[in-house]
């Protein structure tokens, strides 16, 4: 295993006006009079200023504000204390809204929405395309459990459509199982995560390599250089392993034996031919910007995985190492095989090196060899995986874009693209670009 690898300021007890808490009783009680204004119509500059300009004259306090614009259509909600002239305030806001071409409702009532919501969850739903049936099915299941959807926002619109629902009042594990099954039935992917601070902060993200970080199986690329007979023998061993006749270590040793005699130079040729999964470069780059640590663990070969990790800026690496003598592959592997248990152990080791608990880890993989790693991680993501892996992982992605993992973590596409604006065209988002390692190094 290899690793490519604030100052605090103390202020005196100075109290400013901002430090002073409002007097007790300033927050409205459940019986206090409040007014909710909802304005809808075409968006234009100055709407918010005009509304709050009217409210200045009413001597009220602002309790809550929420605004959303969808394809130029504005919805603005403002909750304020009632003030002395409730009806006059409502009339004034309606007139201001009318001058702006907006429909305005003013609803007097009591109380605020400040009660703490219990069991807050982030439900992320994505699809390509995302169908109304998926949204209806998932939201219906949420309602059926007595949970409430407090807010919905779009995370991405291309190449997949992703929406995030803030949900309160539901049991996370129960909802995860039922909502994931419902989404899958409608051709969508879904993740349920704790909301709030639990989604933020440092993480360690550990990925499988073959058929996850890259589109290829490296041993198959090596076998192609050894000739048709070696390719057939490797394929036959793989098929026996799929039937359960061999464990991973046995199958690896038998397949590597088929490569005996290959010149060492082939490893460089194979690396140049490796194709990154779409979105892989964007995923790693964005995570590094956010302060997340990225690692890879592979049942493949360090001779290909290590240069790949260096090119992408990946911190931690674990992979099998081929024995080479006199410039040729001997057909043997050095040291212990990185198998299913080895991958999980690597995840724990990477987290330990970063000083983080397993709850702050994310694992991404596609095969049975990744199951222990996915189970050990705080969030296990099955990426275009086999059915047994999808069933056991915390969540799954069936879209062919690895950077969709970012949406599961609540990172919007707009923020990724804004951060990419300063980059050269050669290193921008690779969701639809050239994904060979040699073509973009």
TrEMBL record:
Residues 122-192 form the Phosphoserine phosphatase ACT domain. It catalyses: O-phospho-D-serine + H2O = D-serine + phosphate; O-phospho-L-serine + H2O = L-serine + phosphate. Pathway: Amino-acid biosynthesis; L-serine biosynthesis; L-serine from 3-phospho-D-glycerate: step 3/3. The keyword Hydrolase applies. Keywords: Amino-acid biosynthesis, Hydrolase, Magnesium, Metal-binding, Serine biosynthesis. The keyword Magnesium applies. Its EC number is 3.1.3.3. Signal peptide: none annotated. GO terms for molecular function: hydrolase activity. SUPFAM superfamilies: ACT-like, HAD-like. Belongs to the HAD-like hydrolase superfamily. SerB family. PANTHER family: PHOSPHOSERINE PHOSPHATASE (PTHR43344:SF2). NCBIfam families: HAD-SF-IB, serB. This is phosphoserine phosphatase. It comes from Kineosporia corallincola.
């Amino acid at each position: 295993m290899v690793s490519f690898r604030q100052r605090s300021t103390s202020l005196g007890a100075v109290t400013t006006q901002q430090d002073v808490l409002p007097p007790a009783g300033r927050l409205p009680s459940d019986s206090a009079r409040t007014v909710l204004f909802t304005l809808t119509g075409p968006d234009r500059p100055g709407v918010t200023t005009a509304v709050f300009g009217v409210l200045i004259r009413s001597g009220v306090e602002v309790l809550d504000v929420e605004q959303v614009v969808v394809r130029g259509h504005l919805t603005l909600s403002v909750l304020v204390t009632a003030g002395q002239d409730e009806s006059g305030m409502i009339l004034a806001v309606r007139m201001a809204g009318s001058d702006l071409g907006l429909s305005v409702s003013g609803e007097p009532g009591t109380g605020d929405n400040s009660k703490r919501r219990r069991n807050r969850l982030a439900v992320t739903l994505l699809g390509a395309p995302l169908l109304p049936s998926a949204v209806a099915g998932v939201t219906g299941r949420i309602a059926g459990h007595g949970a409430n959807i407090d807010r919905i926002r779009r995370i991405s619109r291309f190449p997949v459509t992703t929406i995030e629902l803030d949900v309160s009042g539901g049991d996370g594990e129960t909802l995860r199982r039922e909502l994931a099954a419902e989404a899958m039935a409608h051709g969508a992917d879904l993740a349920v995560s704790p909301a709030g601070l639990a989604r933020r902060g440092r993480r360690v993200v550990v990925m499988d390599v073959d058929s996850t970080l890259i589109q290829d199986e490296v041993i198959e690329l090596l076998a192609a250089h050894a000739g048709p007979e070696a390719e057939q023998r490797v394929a036959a061993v793989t098929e026996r392993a799929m039937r359960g006749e061999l464990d991973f270590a046995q199958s690896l040793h038998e397949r590597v034996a088929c490569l005996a005699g290959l010149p060492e130079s082939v490893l460089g040729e194979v690396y140049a031919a490796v194709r990154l999964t779409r979105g892989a470069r964007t995923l790693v780059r964005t995570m590094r910007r956010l302060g997340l640590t990225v690692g890879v663990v592979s049942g493949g070969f360090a001779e290909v995985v290590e240069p790949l990790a260096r090119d992408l800026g990946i911190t931690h690496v674990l992979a099998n190492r081929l024995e080479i003598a006199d410039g040729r592959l001997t057909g043997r592997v050095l040291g212990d095989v990185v198998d299913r248990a080895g991958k999980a152990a690597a995840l724990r080791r990477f987290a330990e090196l970063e000083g983080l608990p397993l709850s702050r880890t994310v694992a991404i993989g596609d095969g049975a060899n990744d199951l222990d790693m996915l189970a050990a991680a705080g969030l296990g993501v099955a990426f275009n995986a086999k059915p047994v892996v999808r069933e056991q992982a915390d969540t799954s992605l069936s879209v062919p874009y690895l950077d969709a993992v970012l949406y599961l973590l609540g990172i919007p596409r707009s923020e990724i693209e804004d951060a990419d604006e300063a980059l050269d065209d050669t290193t921008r988002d690779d969701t639809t670009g050239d994904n060979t390692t040699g073509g973009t190094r």
